[in-house]
Design goal:
161 residues, alpha+beta, 5-stranded antiparallel beta sheet, 3-stranded antiparallel beta sheet, 5 helices
Length: 161
Amino acid sequence: GLSFFSPQKGFGCDNVLNYQIFLVNGSIVNVNATLNPHLFRALKGRSNNFGVVAEFDIEIFSQGVFWGGAIEYPQATDVEQLEALVTFTRFDPYAEIELSFSIRARQHSKSPRTCFISKLIVSASALKPFPRIHPQLINTMRISYASDFAQEIVGFQPSNY
């Protein structure tokens, strides 16, 4: 899946080092770049019909605090947000942005955005167009830890899903 570090580290499945899988024939095998490499490639985000994954080992890395957060805008700023996205084309391996447009019944439409730079740079140039858009309903941009940002994102999810 996607994460704050996807531009730098890839999808979550790109960081799996080994799977332990129960195959249809009842055997249990390790699957990695050396053992069963064809099955390893198939499991890394391509398909899941080859057995039941019982365990997986994933590469981890140390990460300190970084700049990020969420900005929520009213629907009236949707065009400006899309224009800012178009300017977000120069690749920065530390910059990650998620745009989502939601329509909530009986409420005004809101457009939350999450922006992250996975290093300690406040208001990095790749993300500057987004904090400049006004009005803003919510702006939580700050320096913090990945765990804090993850909890914040959960709060933006619709309930009962």
